[in-house]
Amino acid sequence: MYAVIDISSTSISMLVCGKDGARPAYKYREGLSALSYTEGGKLTEHGVEKICEKIAVFQDQCKKFGVERLYVVSTAAMRFVDNAEEVFAEIKAKTGAVVNQLDGETEAYCDLIANEKFRSMTGPVIIDIGGASIELCDLTKGGKDGIKCLNFGALTLQRKFVKSVYPDKDECAKIKKYIKKALANEELPSYAGGTAVLVGATTRSIYEIYRDYYDIDVTENMTIELEKLKKLAKKLIEAPDRSHLLIKNAPEKIYFIVVALITLVQLLKKLGFAGIAVSDCGVKEGYLKLALSGEEKSEVSPFFPERPVKEITSVEELAEHIKLRQKAGKPSKKKDEKSEEGAVDKSKKSEESEKPAE
Where is this region: Disordered (predicted)? Predict the structure, then answer.
């Protein structure tokens, strides 16, 4: 079996696949907002510890499943952190995991490889809304030619414009204005009449909310109607009872999912898509295919992390090390006293039993 752990800006997730690398056997996700643990553009020590804790849990799962090869990747979460290299070094020291950092283009290419099956649709274009970036990938183009990366995401917009959990009408207006300006500056091609293929955990959560709200049966062909999506967005912005729907379907994304939905609606309207499909495959599936084929040069991570051994560099450190070892091997004083007391009691009892009866 093979596995991929993805450190994203909103979660840490793992995919475990069978021998062929194509059939997902297990999927796991742990909510963790890496950007919430940044100060001055750097990830804090507490943030690194949180990431290491999650990775360690997944490493244990790999051991249970008998995973033969594990890859650890990081997407937009670390692309916008100033101390990424130091973070990767600490992750390796604490867990043994070697992190493969993906740039925006490679991340989008992984989405493309994972969703080749949508090529037969009319003008298919992948949309992956992450916490700190958005990837667009035109499936009608070959290789990486149709890839576009936007350097903002649902979480960055949330932190930039929203003061509370949910955006109010004024904040929504500011978000829409920002997105329109950003898209105009990118000079994106027209996708009019094409099919938007929604990829990634965030858009999948939006679909789950959409499906629940409109009471849609679970089917293999997951699709969305834009007008219905607009009505849903309006409800989630204005309705006081929105929390129940969000907590039920996207509890770990409740603080930015409304912003993600606003972003998605703006993208769909601006780019002129006629149809909307939802995929259950993304970066991890695509990365695994590329890594196993050799197209993506990847470092394999150990999933049985070795206990770090401190190097002794001085006589003083050696003396301290010996002292600690001796202390660890020496029984405690209380234990010795109890043992001696027990021996005395046994001796007394033995003497009393040997006395002749009067």
Answer: 323-358
Q: List C-alpha distances in Å: 282 to 127, 183, 350.
A: 10, 23, 77
What pLDDT is recorded for position 28? 86
Give the dihedral sign, CA 279/108/285/113: positive
Can you tell me the mean pLDDT for 156-172?
A: 92
Helix ranges (H only) for 272-332 are 283-293, 315-329
CA dist 76 and 344 (Å) reads 69
Report how far residue 133's alpha carbon sits from residue 79's, in angstroms, rounded to the nearest whole number: 10
In eight-state DSSP terms, residue 168 is: -
Q: What pTM did the predictor assign?
A: 0.77
Domains of the chain: 1-115+282-330 (3.30.420.40), 116-280 (3.30.420.150)
What is the Cα–Cα distance from 315 to 99, expressed in whole angstroms? Answer: 36
CA distance linking residue 247 with residue 266, whole number of Å:
24
SS3 for 33? coil
Q: How many angstroms separate the CA atoms of 199 and 277, rounded? A: 9
Using DSSP's 3-state secondary structure scheme, residue 315 falls into helix
pLDDT tens digits, 272-298: 999 999 998 999 999 999 998 888 888
Q: How far is CA 325 from CA 36, 51, 86, 313, in A?
A: 41, 32, 32, 17
- The beta-carbon contacts of 246-249 under 8 Å, at least 24 apart in sequence, are 246/209, 248/212, 249/205, 249/208, 249/209, 249/212
**Is residue 347 over pLDDT 70?**
no
The residues near 36 (Cβ < 8 Å, ≥ 6 apart) are 47
Q: Which residue has the higher pLDDT, 331 or 92?
A: 92
Backbone angles phi, psi at 195, to 5 degrees: -115, 125
* Cα–Cα distance, 277 to 185 (Å, whole number): 27
